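User:
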Amino acid sequence: MIEQIRTIFSYGFMQNALLASLWISLAIGIIGTLVVLNRIVSLSGGIAHAAYGGVGLAYYFGQDPMLGALLFSSLSALVMGVAHRKSKTGADTLIGVMWSIGMAVGIIFIAMTPGYKANLMSYLFGSILAVSASDLKLMAVVSLLVLAFVVLSYRNLLAISYDETFSTVRNAHVNLIYLTMLVLIGLTVVVSMRMVGLILVIALLTIPAAIARIFLKDMRGIMALSTFLSALFCFLGLVISYQTNLQTGPVIILLASGVYLLSALVKKVQAVRNK
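Assistant: Predicted structure:
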């Protein structure tokens, strides 16, 4: 088995995929925890799907689609974040509208661009085996930004995630930290597109953190376990997809989903037994 794994990762493209998995897992583990604890999965989904508008616009104007997605997702995150802070009820409608606008704009501008466009499907469905050196650098930068943000703002993030009212009372710069967190969610979503695509990226962002939260209560512990689980799912997904010739992204998500369901079942059984 070990020899098989060595053979699989002896190829350059598989080594790039593994390195990308590790970088992305760091960002996913941290940001995913904040998404789950702050109950903003739908908001994160809106940011993710709005990013496709940036892909389409950048491709139409002959620019790097990743750059377009980064800018579009960051702007969408700020708009949705401000709306969510002001009116959580009305924000749900805005999130849905911007979600739809982003996808529609992306599809229209891609359709308007002449030429072969098959490579753009990787932004929707993922193509981790096609990760380039520039993609790896971008993943590393985003992951380190996420790590630095959490290290510098951990206490305030802890207060916001568990008791937002208290954090507001103690003047913890809630709005600034909240909006920064949303922008980093957008950046994390974009760099994760290479792995599982926009269609499945929210599942990758939330499932490892949701599993970790079943067993742990401490935010630092949830982040650490979520990062480990994300890396494990990605590693196993790469190995299984290579051996079965299946697409890597869906394999990763199915693995993560299976573990989540099993974990929830185990927790439920334990709770029944302890009554």
